[in-house]
Amino acid sequence: MAITNITDVFAGATIGDGITAAEEFDLVIPSGAIISCPLPATGDPNEIVFGLLETIYQGVSADQPTYLRASASSSLANATTYRRTYSFTVDLDFDGDTIIEGLDVKPEPVE
Predict the structure, then answer these.
(1) Is 48 helix (H, G, I), strand (E, B) or coil?
(2) How far apart are CA 26 and CA 55, in angstroms?
(3) Higher confidence at residue 104 or residue 5?
(4) Could you tell me the pTM of the whole model?
């Protein structure tokens, strides 16, 4: 199955449009769609970030489209710390300067 929408990674996610072009869009991800995520009010931020990354990793690695790749490795940092390292590679198509403008890339200063 190709990843064609955010719901292919986060079940039930929605993207809302901003009212004007200057406003950002709203991305809503139901907490039930995040792997291993405790309630944000009681969970440590690292647990929530882990849940987001693990969900993205599993969603991408299940399909591995050519434009989006993911890998992960696990290790024990010490007797009480589990470490999970993620790597994501994203290829973005663009037409002319469209993507450059969106990324807000600036030329290096000339000395």
Answers:
(1) helix
(2) 19
(3) 5
(4) 0.70
Domain boundaries, the chain: 6-103
Long-range contacts of 35-39 (CB under 8 A, 24+ apart): none
What lies within 8 Å, CB to CB, of 63 at 6+ separation is: 1, 2, 3, 8
User: Rounded to the nearest 5°, which phi and psi values hold at 45?
Assistant: -55, -35
Query: Helix (H, G, I), strand (E, B), or coil: what is residue 110?
Result: coil
Helix (H) or strand (E) holding 55: helix 45-61
- Cα–Cα distance list, 71 to 27, 68, 104 (Å): 24, 11, 28
Give 89's strand partners: 69
Q: Are 83 and 77 in contact (CB under 8 A)?
A: yes
Q: Give the pLDDT band of residue 37 (cuts 50, 70, 90).
A: confident
Beta bridge partner(s), residue 76: 82
